[in-house]
Design goal:
The complex is a heterodimer of chains A (about 130) and B (about 500). By secondary structure, chain A is of the alpha+beta class. Chain A contains four helices and nine strands; from the N terminus they run βββαβββββααβα. In chain A, a hairpin with a 4-residue loop joins strand 1 and strand 2. Chain A is globular, with a radius of gyration of 13 Å. The N and C termini of chain A lie close together (about 5 Å). In chain A, about 35% of the residues are buried. Chain B folds into three domains: about 55 residues, no CATH class; about 260 residues, 3-Layer(aba) Sandwich (Aspartate Aminotransferase, domain 2); about 120 residues, Aspartate Aminotransferase, domain 1. Helices cover about 35% and strands about 10% of the residues of chain B. In chain B, helix 3 runs antiparallel to helix 10, helix 5 packs parallel to helix 10 and helix 10 crosses helix 13. Classes of the chains: A alpha+beta (about 130), B alpha/beta (about 500).
């Protein structure tokens, strides 16, 4: 069973979105299920702060031993912070996807976009859990 | 014939065989008047001489023969790597490629002095056009991915020539080969990925929604990576053309179709072949590959130079093609591969080409029928390959597809492609090709069923595999994260 924290919302492509203390800014990473399916992550390519992405536009790349995948921006917005540490040690994504393995902080363009993401219950159903 | 067992002992590196003074070769004194140190800047000189291994000739020979015996290849046993078409390469191909008049031909030979070689290339082109259902061809691309790039460049040039410059998007289904999105991105397009339906085929409604005035092309792998033929391909082509876009077919899986279905007849505007898959030229180990691209008439003006043509009674290489996308490869492409593919097609003939595709499809379906109850296939049986999922073993016994793949090595088989296509979880993608007897298919199926039993009864046998190879599991994650490819000389 993969961990699905209650306080997060999700995309069908297995990114999670977490509200930060700062209004309008969210943290984005990949779910525990996603890291388990990918296996050992060996490389991650993240954008620079200031970059803007549309809803579900690829914002980066993640490479595991068995596959390379795109990372999708759950909602439209601008990157305000990037977790540089995981580019040097991507194994954190496997060990702690919801904590140290976070990827980007994003200033949300249209807060209403957040309502369209999956609830923990819907995400659990999506991955057949 | 059961594959012979591997030597379980690891081969030492050639450096480890080295003993000071033991080298058997006398290197001639340099005849140059100046030494490197006299002509190169200091920064370009190495600080220490290279530590070349000192090994006599017979030890060098024994070292590499031992390694070659440990290598897995199509001359040794089944190599069922899905979507790679690892078929046996007939040795007559090699005989022809080594004919002195072909092997010794200098690439700068003027057209008039190499008419035979040009005729061979031209004839191969005619045959491939016939198999493709297309009007024109280039043999230049060095392999499949370069063929895709050529095709997408041709399509871009076509739109440019019509001042139709708003087309920035290439649509690619999630059942396509992984190189397709890379090709489109490299050629400067934005990739729009679309999901397959429950059959593992393209959904027409999804395609319609994705098509628009910004669409430059659709890249369609035919049959796709779950082995399915896109049964609505003519309607797909119609919709693509109606939107003003062109249809590119990735022909890497043509072993399922050659002599039976022609992509050109289905509405494709351009496609590539992989001679190193479908037409039995060497695959892997550096090949080299060869990826000819065949096109319809409206793309012909853009083909890379030189274009091989027949003028009067003579074969010529045409350079005066103002709309050409330019040159892609040195000389005429990988000519040695053209000789081998020519030989292969000539040996098989029209009927043989068709029967080869039919036998490849029959073999894959026979294998699927033998294993599908144990290894479920989410999209059913395909054409030339079968894609199974290892999910039941992972869920019930904690045995992953990677473990099953590694266990196959203990039985002397090469593992199939694993974890691809991405739309099948824990995928095992098996392509036996036509060059396997029914006996060998049975042995491979029996082995897969044995491993399934092991997964249930003694899972540690499978999760700990391979046991009989010189080395067991590598730490692939560590190797990718911290690659170390330099020998430390005993430090």
């Amino acid at each position: 069973m993969s961990k699905i924290p209650d306080d997060l919302v999700f995309t069908e492509e297995h990114e999670y979105v977490q509200q930060t203390d700062q209004p309008g800014v969210v943290t984005v990473g990949i779910t525990d299920y996603a890291q388990g399916e990918l296996g050992d992550v060996v490389y991650v390519d993240l954008p620079k702060p200031g970059a803007k992405f549309g809803k579900m536009e690829p914002f980066g790349t993640i490479e595991a031993v068995k596959a390379v995948s795109e990372l999708f921006c759950p909602v439209a917005g601008e990157i305000v912070e990037v977790n540089d540490g995981i580019e040097g040690d991507p194994s954190v994504i496997n060990k702690d996807p919801y904590g140290g393995g976070w990827m980007i902080r994003l200033r949300v363009k249209n807060p209403k976009d957040l309502d369209e993401l999956l609830s923990p219950k819907d995400y659990a159903a999506h991955i057949g859990q | 014939m059961q594959p012979f067992p591997l030597s379980p002992v690891a081969t030492p590196l050639i450096f480890e065989r080295s003993k000071p003074g033991r080298g058997g070769t006398r290197v001639p004194r340099p005849i140059a008047a100046k030494r490197a140190a006299d002509v190169l800047p200091k920064a370009a000189l190495r600080r220490d001489p290279p530590r070349l291994p000192e090994v006599p000739e017979f030890e060098v020979m024994r070292h590499f023969v031992e390694l070659s015996l440990k290598n897995h290849h199509v001359d040794r046993a089944l190599y069922p790597l899905g979507s790679c078409t690892m078929k046996y390469n007939p040795k007559v191909n090699e005989d022809m490629a080594r004919l002195p008049g072909l092997a010794g031909l200098h690439p700068f030979t003027p057209d008039a002095a190499c008419q035979g070689a040009l005729e061979l290339m031209h004839t191969l082109g005619e045959w491939l056009k016939d198999i493709a259902g297309m009007d024109a061809i280039t043999l230049q691309p060095a392999a499949g991915a370069q063929g895709e790039m050529t095709g997408i460049f041709l399509i871009a040039a076509y739109h440019r020539s019509r001042k139709d410059t708003a087309r920035k998007t290439v649509i690619i289904p999630d059942s396509a080969h992984g190189t397709n999105p890379a090709t489109a991105a490299l050629a400067g397009f934005t990739v729009k990925a679309i999901k397959s339906d429950a059959r593992g085929q393209m959904d027409l409604a999804t395609l319609k929604a994705a098509l628009g005035p910004d669409t430059a092309a659709l890249m369609l792998t035919l049959p796709n990576t779950v082995g399915r033929f896109e049964t609505e391909v003519t309607e797909i082509a119609r919709l693509v053309h109606e939107a003003g876009a062109l249809l590119y077919v990735d022909g890497a899986n043509m072993n399922a179709l050659m002599g039976v279905v022609r992509p050109g007849d289905c509405g494709a505007d351009a496609m590539h072949f992989n001679l190193h898959k479908t037409f039995s030229t060497p695959h892997g180990g550096g090949g080299p590959g060869s990826g000819p691209v065949a096109v319809k008439q409206h793309l012909e003006p853009f083909l890379p130079v030189p274009v091989l043509a027949k003028e009067g009674g003579a074969y010529v290489r045409q350079w005066d093609r103002p709309q050409s996308i330019g040159k892609l490869h040195g000389y005429g492409g990988n000519f040695g591969m053209h000789v081998r593919a020519y030989t292969y097609i000539a040996m098989l003939g029209r009927e043989g080409i068709r029967e080869t595709a039919q036998a490849a499809v029959l073999n894959a379906n026979y294998l699927a029928a033998r294993i599908e109850k144990t290894y479920p296939m989410p999209y059913g049986r395909g054409l030339h390959e079968c894609v199974a999922t290892g999910t039941p073993f992972k869920d019930q016994y904690g045995v992953k597809t990677l473990d099953i793949a590694k266990r196959l090595l203990d039985y002397g088989f090469h593992a199939p492609t694993v974890y691809f296509p991405l739309i099948v979880h824990e995928a095992l993608m098996i392509e036996p090709t036509e060059t396997a007897t029914r006996d060998e298919l049975d042995r491979f199926a029996d082995t897969l069923l044995t491993i399934a039993r092991e997964a249930k009864e003694q899972p540690e046998l499978v999760t700990g595999a391979p046991r009989l190879t010189p080395v067991s599991r590598f730490d692939e994650a560590e190797a990718a994260r911290n690659p170390n490819v330099r020998y430390a000389f005993g430090q």
